[in-house]
Amino acid sequence: MAKTTKTNQIFKYLSYFVLILLAVLGLYLWYIGAFTDIKVLRSIVGINTHPLLAPVIFFALQIFQILIPIIPGTITLTAGVVLFGPWLGFVYNYTSIVLGSTLAFLLVRRFGKAFVTNYIDEGKHTKYLKWIEDKQKFTRIFAIAILLPGAPDDILSMLAGLSEMRLRTFIIILLIAKPLSIAAYSGAFSFLKHFF
Protein backbone atom coordinates (compact mmCIF):
# COMPACT_ATOMS: atom_id res chain seq x y z
CA MET A 1 0.00 0.00 0.00
CA ALA A 2 2.85 2.39 0.87
CA LYS A 3 4.52 1.60 -2.45
CA THR A 4 1.29 2.46 -4.34
CA THR A 5 0.98 5.77 -2.47
CA LYS A 6 4.60 6.63 -3.23
CA THR A 7 4.09 5.81 -6.94
CA ASN A 8 0.96 7.99 -7.00
CA GLN A 9 2.86 10.89 -5.43
CA ILE A 10 5.69 10.57 -7.95
CA PHE A 11 3.21 10.69 -10.85
CA LYS A 12 1.36 13.60 -9.22
CA TYR A 13 4.53 15.71 -8.80
CA LEU A 14 5.74 14.75 -12.26
CA SER A 15 2.41 15.90 -13.70
CA TYR A 16 2.69 19.26 -11.88
CA PHE A 17 6.26 19.71 -13.08
CA VAL A 18 5.31 18.95 -16.69
CA LEU A 19 2.30 21.29 -16.46
CA ILE A 20 4.52 24.19 -15.25
CA LEU A 21 7.12 23.37 -17.91
CA LEU A 22 4.44 23.39 -20.62
CA ALA A 23 3.04 26.71 -19.38
CA VAL A 24 6.51 28.29 -19.53
CA LEU A 25 7.15 26.78 -22.96
CA GLY A 26 3.74 27.98 -24.19
CA LEU A 27 4.47 31.55 -23.05
CA TYR A 28 7.87 31.46 -24.72
CA LEU A 29 6.42 30.16 -28.00
CA TRP A 30 3.71 32.83 -27.89
CA TYR A 31 6.36 35.51 -27.23
CA ILE A 32 8.46 34.53 -30.27
CA GLY A 33 5.39 34.25 -32.53
CA ALA A 34 5.26 30.49 -33.00
CA PHE A 35 1.45 30.46 -32.73
CA THR A 36 0.94 33.13 -35.39
CA ASP A 37 3.67 32.28 -37.92
CA ILE A 38 4.00 28.70 -39.19
CA LYS A 39 7.55 29.40 -40.42
CA VAL A 40 8.67 30.21 -36.88
CA LEU A 41 7.08 27.02 -35.54
CA ARG A 42 8.64 24.89 -38.29
CA SER A 43 12.08 26.39 -37.66
CA ILE A 44 11.78 25.64 -33.91
CA VAL A 45 10.88 22.02 -34.57
CA GLY A 46 13.65 21.84 -37.17
CA ILE A 47 11.64 20.37 -40.03
CA ASN A 48 13.86 22.00 -42.67
CA THR A 49 17.18 21.69 -40.84
CA HIS A 50 16.63 18.28 -39.20
CA PRO A 51 14.06 16.43 -41.35
CA LEU A 52 14.73 13.09 -39.62
CA LEU A 53 14.90 14.39 -36.05
CA ALA A 54 11.63 16.39 -36.21
CA PRO A 55 9.39 13.29 -36.63
CA VAL A 56 11.27 11.53 -33.81
CA ILE A 57 10.63 14.49 -31.49
CA PHE A 58 6.98 14.56 -32.57
CA PHE A 59 6.62 10.80 -31.92
CA ALA A 60 8.11 11.24 -28.44
CA LEU A 61 5.73 14.14 -27.67
CA GLN A 62 2.69 12.25 -28.93
CA ILE A 63 3.56 9.13 -26.91
CA PHE A 64 4.33 11.28 -23.84
CA GLN A 65 0.93 13.00 -23.99
CA ILE A 66 -0.77 9.59 -24.01
CA LEU A 67 1.17 8.32 -20.98
CA ILE A 68 0.91 11.60 -19.05
CA PRO A 69 -2.30 13.11 -20.45
CA ILE A 70 -1.79 16.76 -19.56
CA ILE A 71 -1.65 18.05 -23.13
CA PRO A 72 -4.97 17.50 -24.91
CA GLY A 73 -4.57 15.03 -27.78
CA THR A 74 -6.31 17.48 -30.12
CA ILE A 75 -3.34 19.84 -29.81
CA THR A 76 -0.77 17.22 -30.78
CA LEU A 77 -3.01 15.88 -33.59
CA THR A 78 -3.35 19.40 -34.98
CA ALA A 79 0.40 20.02 -34.55
CA GLY A 80 1.13 16.93 -36.64
CA VAL A 81 -0.98 18.27 -39.52
CA VAL A 82 0.39 21.83 -39.21
CA LEU A 83 4.03 20.75 -39.08
CA PHE A 84 4.11 17.87 -41.54
CA GLY A 85 1.08 18.43 -43.78
CA PRO A 86 -2.13 16.38 -43.98
CA TRP A 87 -0.60 13.15 -45.37
CA LEU A 88 2.62 12.84 -43.36
CA GLY A 89 0.81 14.36 -40.38
CA PHE A 90 -1.77 11.58 -40.61
CA VAL A 91 0.90 8.86 -40.82
CA TYR A 92 2.91 10.27 -37.89
CA ASN A 93 -0.20 10.80 -35.78
CA TYR A 94 -1.54 7.33 -36.52
CA THR A 95 1.65 5.39 -35.83
CA SER A 96 2.60 7.36 -32.71
CA ILE A 97 -0.91 7.07 -31.22
CA VAL A 98 -1.00 3.31 -31.83
CA LEU A 99 2.45 2.93 -30.23
CA GLY A 100 1.64 5.23 -27.29
CA SER A 101 -1.73 3.62 -26.61
CA THR A 102 -0.20 0.14 -26.74
CA LEU A 103 2.50 1.26 -24.32
CA ALA A 104 -0.18 2.65 -21.95
CA PHE A 105 -2.06 -0.67 -22.17
CA LEU A 106 1.12 -2.64 -21.34
CA LEU A 107 2.12 -0.33 -18.46
CA VAL A 108 -1.30 -0.77 -16.87
CA ARG A 109 -0.99 -4.54 -17.32
CA ARG A 110 2.34 -4.32 -15.49
CA PHE A 111 1.48 -1.84 -12.70
CA GLY A 112 -2.29 -2.33 -12.38
CA LYS A 113 -4.80 0.09 -10.85
CA ALA A 114 -2.06 2.20 -9.24
CA PHE A 115 -1.07 3.48 -12.67
CA VAL A 116 -4.64 4.41 -13.64
CA THR A 117 -5.52 6.17 -10.37
CA ASN A 118 -2.95 8.84 -11.20
CA TYR A 119 -5.19 10.08 -14.00
CA ILE A 120 -8.75 9.32 -12.91
CA ASP A 121 -10.38 10.60 -9.73
CA GLU A 122 -11.93 8.07 -7.34
CA GLY A 123 -15.55 8.63 -8.43
CA LYS A 124 -14.86 8.18 -12.13
CA HIS A 125 -12.46 5.34 -11.39
CA THR A 126 -15.23 3.34 -9.70
CA LYS A 127 -17.64 4.08 -12.57
CA TYR A 128 -15.10 3.06 -15.22
CA LEU A 129 -14.24 -0.15 -13.38
CA LYS A 130 -17.89 -1.21 -13.75
CA TRP A 131 -17.51 -0.83 -17.53
CA ILE A 132 -14.78 -3.45 -17.72
CA GLU A 133 -16.67 -6.09 -15.73
CA ASP A 134 -18.47 -7.29 -18.87
CA LYS A 135 -15.67 -8.20 -21.30
CA GLN A 136 -17.75 -8.25 -24.50
CA LYS A 137 -19.63 -5.06 -23.65
CA PHE A 138 -16.40 -3.21 -22.82
CA THR A 139 -14.78 -4.39 -26.08
CA ARG A 140 -17.74 -2.95 -28.04
CA ILE A 141 -17.67 0.33 -26.05
CA PHE A 142 -13.90 0.58 -26.56
CA ALA A 143 -14.14 -0.04 -30.33
CA ILE A 144 -16.92 2.55 -30.81
CA ALA A 145 -15.16 5.15 -28.64
CA ILE A 146 -11.84 4.74 -30.48
CA LEU A 147 -13.72 5.20 -33.75
CA LEU A 148 -15.11 8.59 -32.67
CA PRO A 149 -13.10 11.84 -32.67
CA GLY A 150 -12.73 13.44 -29.25
CA ALA A 151 -12.86 10.22 -27.21
CA PRO A 152 -10.44 10.02 -24.24
CA ASP A 153 -8.21 7.41 -25.94
CA ASP A 154 -5.49 7.54 -23.29
CA ILE A 155 -7.90 6.72 -20.45
CA LEU A 156 -9.66 4.08 -22.55
CA SER A 157 -6.33 2.41 -23.36
CA MET A 158 -5.51 2.28 -19.65
CA LEU A 159 -8.94 0.84 -18.82
CA ALA A 160 -8.43 -1.77 -21.55
CA GLY A 161 -5.19 -2.70 -19.77
CA LEU A 162 -7.20 -3.34 -16.60
CA SER A 163 -9.80 -5.40 -18.46
CA GLU A 164 -9.56 -8.96 -19.73
CA MET A 165 -9.09 -7.73 -23.29
CA ARG A 166 -6.24 -9.46 -25.09
CA LEU A 167 -3.37 -7.34 -26.41
CA ARG A 168 -4.04 -8.66 -29.91
CA THR A 169 -7.70 -7.53 -29.78
CA PHE A 170 -6.64 -4.13 -28.44
CA ILE A 171 -4.14 -3.58 -31.27
CA ILE A 172 -6.57 -4.76 -33.97
CA ILE A 173 -9.24 -2.33 -32.72
CA LEU A 174 -6.71 0.53 -32.71
CA LEU A 175 -5.42 -0.29 -36.18
CA ILE A 176 -8.92 -0.48 -37.69
CA ALA A 177 -10.83 2.20 -35.75
CA LYS A 178 -8.24 4.92 -35.10
CA PRO A 179 -7.56 6.06 -38.70
CA LEU A 180 -11.08 7.46 -39.09
CA SER A 181 -10.88 9.89 -36.16
CA ILE A 182 -7.32 10.95 -37.08
CA ALA A 183 -8.38 11.50 -40.70
CA ALA A 184 -11.32 13.58 -39.43
CA TYR A 185 -8.93 15.86 -37.50
CA SER A 186 -6.47 16.05 -40.40
CA GLY A 187 -9.18 16.75 -42.97
CA ALA A 188 -11.02 19.30 -40.80
CA PHE A 189 -7.86 21.26 -40.10
CA SER A 190 -6.76 21.23 -43.76
CA PHE A 191 -10.26 22.43 -44.77
CA LEU A 192 -10.41 25.22 -42.15
CA LYS A 193 -6.93 26.43 -43.07
CA HIS A 194 -8.31 27.81 -46.36
CA PHE A 195 -10.74 30.12 -44.54
CA PHE A 196 -8.50 31.56 -41.78
TrEMBL record:
Membrane-protein topology: Multi-pass membrane protein
Keyword Transmembrane helix: yes
Subcellular location: Cell membrane
Domain of life: Bacteria
Transmembrane segments: 13-31, 91-108, 141-163, 169-192
Coiled-coil blocks: none
This protein's UniProt keywords: Cell membrane, Membrane, Transmembrane, Transmembrane helix
Listed InterPro entries: TMEM64, VTT_dom
Domain VTT: 71-189
Family to which this protein belongs: Belongs to the TVP38/TMEM64 family.
Name of the featured protein: TVP38/TMEM64 family membrane protein
Organism: Periweissella fabaria
